[in-house]
Write a structure and sequence with these properties.
By secondary structure, the protein is α/β, with parallel strands linked by helices. About 40% of the residues lie in helices and about 20% in strands. Helix 1 (about 20-35) packs across helix 6.
Length: about 200
């Protein structure tokens, strides 16, 4: 049994923000796997797990509802209840260090300053889960202003909670589609095959 975790923040005001790309991907994944009507009813709010949860034949898909910096509570509670091993946990999340539209898959490592990943590491006490890192841009709200300097934390928070620009729409649509292909391939052929194919 696999646990696929899409990271994001609950609430309508966050729906199309960069930080919610994880939610976007797993929602599309469930729609692709299930027929339309069942997919609309597939998500169940589970208060004891702090998440929206969808059970599929070969995996459990969740969207933590605790806000990003406490995502680990949902991941830990679901993993413990269903006895899912650390290597079977896949987390889909935004990555400010990757260009918009880029995907990178890796096992383990640090949080790189991502609050959701940091929370999961702390709650599980183990960093060896797989991350599907999705590029949301380099943290520049003004895309015409070219700078590679490190942004202040406040600027980063403002950026990740900003919506994607119209000019980025095509890249994001392709990214969501590509990540879903990666998830399906990982289920069918294993994570190593997917890492070789997409990285």
């Amino acid at each position: 049994m696999k646990l696929i975790v899409g990271l994001g923040n609950p609430g309508d005001k966050y729906t199309y923000t960069r930080h919610n790309i994880g939610f976007m991907v797993v929602e599309k994944y469930v729609k692709d796997v299930l027929p339309l009507m069942p997919s609309l009813k597939a998500w169940k709010k589970d208060k004891k797990f702090f998440c929206l949860l969808c059970k599929l034949n070969n995996c459990i898909v969740i969207k933590p509802q605790t806000y990003m910096n406490q995502s680990g509570s949902a991941v830990k509670s679901v993993a413990n209840f269903y006895k899912i091993k650390i290597e079977e946990i896949w987390v889909v999340h935004d990555d400010i260090d990757l260009p918009t539209g880029k995907i990178k898959i890796r096992k383990g490592g640090g949080s790189a300053g991502h609050n959701g990943i940091e929370s999961i590491i702390n709650q599980l006490g183990n960093p060896d889960f797989t991350r599907f890192r999705l590029g949301i841009g380099k943290g520049k709200l003004d895309l015409h202003h070219n700078t590679d300097k490190n942004l202040h934390r406040r600027e980063i928070e403002k950026f990740v909670l900003s919506p994607f620009k119209d000019t980025e729409g095509g890249d994001i649509k392709k990214l969501v589609k590509k990540t879903n292909e990666a998830l399906k391939m990982a289920i069918e052929k294993g994570i190593e095959t997917v890492m070789n194919r997409f990285n």
